[in-house]
Amino acid sequence: MITFSTNVGDICIELDMEKAPVSSKNFLQYCEEGFYEHTIFHRVIKGFMIQGGGFTAKMKEKPTRDPIVNEANRGLSNVLGTIAMARTDAPHSATGQFFINVGDNTFLDHTATTNNGWGYAVFGKVVAGIEVVKEIEKVKTATIAGHDDVPKEAIVIEKVTIS
User: Fold this and answer.
1) Distances from the Cα of 150 to the Cαs of 80, 99, 100, 126, in angstroms?
2) Per-residue pLDDT of the chain (163 residues; tens, 9 = 90+)
3) Model pTM score
4) How far apart are CA 80 and CA 130, in angstroms?
5) SS3 of 63, please?
6) Which of 8, 30, 32, 65 has the highest count of CB atoms within 10 angstroms of its CB?
């Protein structure tokens, strides 16, 4: 269990090591290294998702390890409360950023081994604190430092606890 203590409240995440071992181990390693502490949820889109794990409150991107293989083809679905790896348009480009689905986003699921069909790898779910996720979803956003959908007031991951 991973607990993100944010300035809005705690979010507890359970990893699915069986169905998404690469993504889960990658995320856990970032947690163990303290990488996510003092990062923000830098992209919030109502009805879609909240994204974090890559930027400081000053919108400075943090350096990451090498990308991992995309496990979106392992049978987990992007539904409300699941956590998935964020990535670029390239299917196997996920590093440290993640997002939590605030709705059922099954259009993000794997459909084919093509660039458009790969999808986004789910690797766990929120088991406590979904109300905190929903509070984050409601914040006012703006374009900041060239990035859209950034909360006007920083939503900070202050501490990460592994239990």
Assistant:
1) 21, 14, 15, 22
2) 999 999 999 999 999 999 999 999 999 999 999 999 999 999 999 999 999 999 999 999 999 999 999 999 999 999 999 999 999 999 999 999 999 999 999 999 999 999 889 999 999 999 999 999 999 999 999 999 999 999 999 999 999 999 9
3) 0.98
4) 9
5) coil
6) 30
